[in-house]
Amino acid sequence: MRSAVLRRAAVPALIAATLLTAAAPAAVASAAPGVAAPAPAACTITDASVTWGFKESFRSYISGSIAKGAWEPFGGVGYETPAFTWTGGAGAFDPATGTGSIAFPGGIRFTGHDGLLDTTVQNATLEISPGTGRVLLDLSGVSMEDVLAGDATVATTPQVPLVTLDLSALAVDASGDALSLTATDAATAITAEGYDAFGNYETGTAFDPLTLTASGTCAAPTPTAEETPEAAEPVVTSTPAAAESDDPPGSALPIALFASIGGALVAVIGGTTAAVVATKRKRAGA
């Protein structure tokens, strides 16, 4: 009797296991790929300007009674006391990362000491990062020491990161497809690389504050599909009768499910019945 009861108790458990096994592929196959949020688009800067006095004490030295020199802006750079103005800047900016760069044409030539001092700064590039930045310049010239030694060879060092730029107050407006950047009187200071190339001021010495304005356009963001694992194909055993079935589309999985359950029930019931009959025969023989 105990053996028959145990076998009968196993029937519901086997049915449940069969149901779970058959239904699992359906659950996996039902997963659908999602769509990620639109990725922010990078922006193109089409117009930018910078107002920067470079270094007021250097200008005073050049124009004073010792150097008796001058400066000559060229290539679109202008000067109106007390600052130079770069215009026609162009570049790119990514609002998502807060990074970008803007390049400006033109430059300034500083001369003095009857030609012993001759330095040119040109092709300015503003590098922008979150909260900070740098001003890079092509530096060329002849040091007074070399000239006095009889060497008048002009040395050029491209894109020297001359000064750091405090952009903690940079205003960014990326509304729709329009972009604007504004930084007013951002502090600047000479870098170690600037000191090596320029040689007049120690690293960290403050230069004049810089004002930046820029505008441009941004491409419309496009949604990107999220990558999802491919669903495993359910293994379904087909029969000739199933191929000729008149069931509507989408009914194949329930039929396979019921077939699996039916097969399991037949096997279990058959085994249970045989066990019961065998037990009764033993009792009858006893």
TrEMBL record:
Residues 1-31 form the signal peptide. Residues 219-237 have a biased composition (Low complexity). Residues 48-213 form the Htaa domain. It comes from the Bacteria. Residues 217-248 are annotated as: Disordered. Keywords: Membrane, Signal, Transmembrane, Transmembrane helix. The chain crosses the membrane at residues 255-278. This is Htaa domain-containing protein. It comes from Microbacterium radiodurans.
